[in-house]
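Note to self: keep these together.
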Amino acid sequence: MAEPTQPAQDPAAQQPAATEGAEAPKGPSKNELKKRAKEEEKARKAAEKAARQAELEAQKAAAEIDDAKEFYGKLPLNQSQARPRRERAQIASLTPDLDGQTVLIRARVQTSRAQGSKMVFLNLRQRTDSVQALLAVAPGKVSKQMAKWAAGLQIESIVLAEGVVKKAPEIIKSATVGDVELHLTQLHLISGLETVLPFTVDDANRPEPAETEAEDVQFKRVLLDTRLNNRVVDLRTQTNQAVFKLQHAIGREFRDFLESKGFTEIHSPKLQGAATESGASVFQVSYFKGKAFLAQSPQLAKQMAIAADFERVYEIGPVFRAEDSNTHRHMTEFIGLDLEMAIEEHYHEVMELLDGLFLHMFRSLKQKYAKEIETVGKQFPADEFKWREGPEGTLKLSFREAVDLLVADGVPREDLDDIDTTNEKRLGRIVRAKYDTDYFIIDKFPMALRPFYTMPDPEDPTLSNSYDFFMRGEEILSGAQRVHDAALLATQMRAKGVDPASMSYYLEAFKLGCPPHGGGGIGLERVLMLFLKLNNIRRASLFPRDPKRLEP
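Structure:
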């Protein structure tokens, strides 16, 4: 049987009864209350500070969110992974008529300038053309990070830029296309730099200082040797882009004119078994167990083509001259523009065709390439090249008449058996002053000054049926009627110290019968140098070769 349950006792009943007359317990002291209040205030301030910090962190995190990541950055290496066929624009084609239109261009960064942290100005360049581009921070379109990245792009980097064409409020003088600017929406790096630029394209593009100008000019001057040692950067200048477009134009106009006159282009070998002109100026190279020579001109091949009934031929190709001439107008390798043609009655048929060729080239350059000529003129200011038009035609002087002009100007006649470089230039100044032309022809040179294959004058054997053409007082073409009679040719070879047996294949062509013929050889770079007045032929050669330079 279960035990009876004990009733629960009241806890209060277990406490001893309060003693009568005892005091009630005391509350917190004033000091304790103050202490508690300070702690509560401190906790409140800490909570407020934490809230403010959290808010700042949230704002910072929001600011670090780059909502333009896809609109800028370095592109992957182009390995032809894809071909989306997006249309690309040329800077030269940007006009106010395109205002508001979006275009995509590939260009180099010529200059870069940040304005604060929200705006970057870029000068973008394609060959001779440039345009100002603006990148401005805009929510959801251009981020601060994008602007900072764009401001850090190296000069001469290649970029792919997309933007909206905007009509410029005023002409932008720092760009060739100055009536518009490009408001960028996307900017990607195609190719950056992995080395330091030897000089800036802007410095290389500055006008050449006058000879009398002080050396302490405001801007850096890039010397010619420095340019040639770093030719790839130098060739990027707008001046050089224009120079070599004009070089291309001269070659094209030469070709077009001659083809319209029934000429055929040929390609002759540059390795030969004998010297073309004279052994003194020929490069000799080893050729298996023997030796060979680099062609001084396509002279022999041209004449042999005429003997083979080609009638009219021309060639554009390299010419080699082993002359240790370190002058402003000589190179050891240059591009020759050569032609040869059969004549019917008189060698002046050739001279007149050559004259027509030069007039055609001069007119074409002036009419079709005025922009390029103007671009070069900004760096190399020069008097405009002059030639005579109209019924009087090109000025033609005999060698004796040219000598008489120099004698009348004070040059002793005994110094003029040949007209050297100094007197050529002097003659150019005389002709410009007297006849108002920079282009003229001298005919009937002394036979002693011409190579063995030159036809002698029929009346005076001390003279020859030969001519030189001049621009600004410097020779740019040498030509003549050639000897087409084998016996006379052999005689003249011996007279010039050339053994006919050493050129038997050449001589054989004339023994088989050859029509009367003549021609000429033009130095491409020299024509370009003198037309633009570049003052040094190396500026007219892509990668010049002279006695002291074999690279780059």
